Amino acid sequence: MAWECGASSNAALIRNLNLAGIITKPRVIEAMKHTDRKFYCPHFSYEDSPQTIGYSATISAPHMHGIALEELESKLQSGNRVLDIGSGSGYLTAAMARMVGKNGYVKGVEHIQGLVDLSKKNLQEDAKHDPLIDYMMKHKRIEVVRGDGRLGSPEDEKFDAIHVGAAASELPKRLKEQLNVHGKMIIPVGTTFQDIFVYDKHADGNLSKKSLFSVRYVPLTDPPSDYEDM
Questions:
Q1: Which residues contact 138 (CB under 8 A, 6 or more apart)?
Q2: Is the distance from CB of 155 to CB of 81 less than 8 angstroms?
Q3: What domain range includes position 174?
Q4: What's the rounded Cα separation, in Å, for the pair 169 and 189?
Q5: For position 78, which CATH number holds?
Q6: pLDDT digit string (tens) for 148-184?
C-alpha cells in the first residue's frame, strides 16, 4: 500500500498516506503537510520511494518518515529535545521541529559535510515560507552538525526523542546514554538486513524495545574519504 501513495503534490501525498492508514495522528499529518518535500528532495519529490540526494545518499520514502513520526509523536511535544542521526537533506529534522515548536530543539547529525551544507541550505529555503522554521533557525533551535552518528551528539546532552536514519549492527552505547528517561528512539538494528526497533527508556534507566518490521538500510559508517572536503 505504501508504494501506491505517491502523488503530484505534497498535499495529495499526505492525503494518500493518511488514507492508507500510515499516518493517522493529527500532529503528524499537520507537520508533514507543512514540510514540503520539494525543499528536501528536488527530483520525484512526491513519489513514495527513496530518492537520491547526492553524495551516494538517499532520502527515505515518505511512508518511512511518516512511520517514524507516528512512533515518536508522544515525545515530539512542545519544548522537547530531538536528535536526528543521519539527517540527510534535512526533511525529518524540519518536520520534527514543527512538532516540538519554537521552544523545542532539534539537532541533526550527518557524517558528510556536503550533506550538512545541503540540509542547512534546504532549511533556509523552507524558512522563507514558514516563520516558525525561520525563528528556530535564527535562534539555533534547529542545528545541523557534522559528526559520527554512532557517537550521537558531539555534545554531552540528553534528548526526549532520537531518530536514526541508518543501520547499526547493535544499539550504540552513546545513543542509549543520550536518550532521556521516558524518552523514545527509533533505529534500524542489524547487519545485512535489519529490523526497525522502537526503544523506550524507563525511570530506572533500562530500555524496552519492540520490533516494527524488517528493512534494509545503509549502515552508520565513517565518511568516504572522497567526500571529506566536499
A1: none
A2: no
A3: 61-223
A4: 6
A5: 3.40.50.150
A6: 999 999 998 999 999 998 888 899 999 999 999 999 9
The answer to whether residue 157 is domain-embedded is yes
- Asked if residue 30 is part of any domain, the answer here is no
Paired sense of beta strands 179-190 and 159-164, if any: parallel
Residue 189 is which amino acid?
V
Look at residue 2 in the predicted model and tell me its pLDDT: 52
Q: Is residue 147 part of a domain?
A: yes
Q: Residue 177, SS3? A: helix
Which residues are tagged catalytic?
Answer: 60
Summarised one tens digit per residue, pLDDT across range 121-146 is 999 999 999 999 999 999 999 999 99
Which value, to the nearest 10 degrees, does the dihedral of the CA atoms of residues 184, 190, 195, 196 take?
30
Residues 197, 184 contacting (CB under 8 angstroms)? no
One-letter amino acid at 51 equals Q
| 50 assigned to some structural domain | no
